[in-house]
Prior knowledge:
By secondary structure, this protein is of the alpha/beta class. The protein is 37% helix and 15% strand. It has helices at residues 15-22, 26-40, 84-96, 113-128, 142-150, 176-188, 205-217, 246-259, 276-285, 304-314, and strands at residues 45-55, 101-106, 132-136, 155-157, 192-194, 197-199, 224-229, 264-267, 289-291, 295-296, 299-300, 317-318.
Amino acid sequence: MAFPLPSSPRPVPTQAEVEAMFARPLNDLLFEAHTVHRRHFDPNAVQVSTLLSIKTGGCPEDCHYCSQSAHYHTTVGREALMDVEDVRREARAAREAGATRFCMGAAYRGPRDRDLETIARMIEAVKAEGLETCATLGLLEAAQARRLADAGLDYYNHNLDTSPEYYAQVVTTRRYEDRLETLEHVRAAGLKVCSGGIVGMGESTADRAALLRTLAALDPPPESVPVNELVPVEGTPFYGLPPIDPFDLVRTVAVARLLMPASHVRLSAGRRSMSDELQALCFFAGANSIFYGERLLTTPNPERDEDRRLFARLGIHPEPPPSPAP
C-alpha cells in the first residue's frame, strides 16, 4: 500500500507525473526548471551557509550512510557538545568569510533537555553575530521545538532521506512517520523547515520522485531543500556503492525546482567530488544554495577559495542576507 502523503491544500502531482518529469529530455527539463527558477529568484545569486558539528559521533541511529553512527567502525570519534563561546567564534569567522546562515549539527537521536539549553544559548550567540540560524539535532518533541523557536532559531533541518518505500533500506532505528512528526512540531513552533534527501544510496528514480513528491506535499513545502549526493564512508554499509550518474543528480535538482518553485534548493553533500561543470549545470537547473567551508560535519567540502573562483567564473554572487523583520 502506498505511503499516505501529508495533507496539503495545494494540488500535488501524482507519482506517475513526477516520474514523467524525470524522464523528460534533459534539455526540455532544464529549460522548464530554469524558467521557473527565474520567476522566483535571481538566477545569479546563491545563498551561502556554513555547517558546524557541535557534537560529533556516538549517534545511536543506524543510518547506513552516516560516519557518526555508533553501529559502525569509522574514523570519526566521539566529541562532547561544544562550548558556547567556541561556537560564537566559529560563527563570527563564517560571517566574515561571507556566510549568511550558520547551521549547527549534533549527532543525537534526539537532544536531551539539558543539552538543549546549551544549544539555545548557542543560537542566541550566533544570532548576535548577525547570522540566520539553523540546527539539526534529530527527532524533536513539540516542547523542544518551541524552546528552539524561543531562542531565535530560524530553520530546523530534518531530512526525509529517501522515499517512504526505500526508507527501510537506509535506516531501521526510526520510522518515516517519526521524521514527519518532527517536521510537524517544527512547523507548529513557527520555525522554517529545511528538509531534503540523499541520492546515490541505491534507490530508483521512482524513489527520488516519491521523496520529492512527499516534500512538495508538506504544507507549506520546506523553505530549504538540500539535495545531497552520497559520500561513501569506509565502515558504513553504503561504502562501495557506485556513484550516481551526474545527469541523474541534475534531474533531481530540476524536478525539486519544479515541484517547490519558491524554495531554496541546496546543492549539499558531495560537492567535493563534483566538477565545476556539473555544479554549474545544477545551478542552472535551480540549485541556489550551498554550504561554504572545508567540512560538512565530518565529510570534505570544497574550500572557500575554490567556491569563490567558481562563482567568479560563472558570474554568480552570494545572496545577500534577508532584511531584518520590521
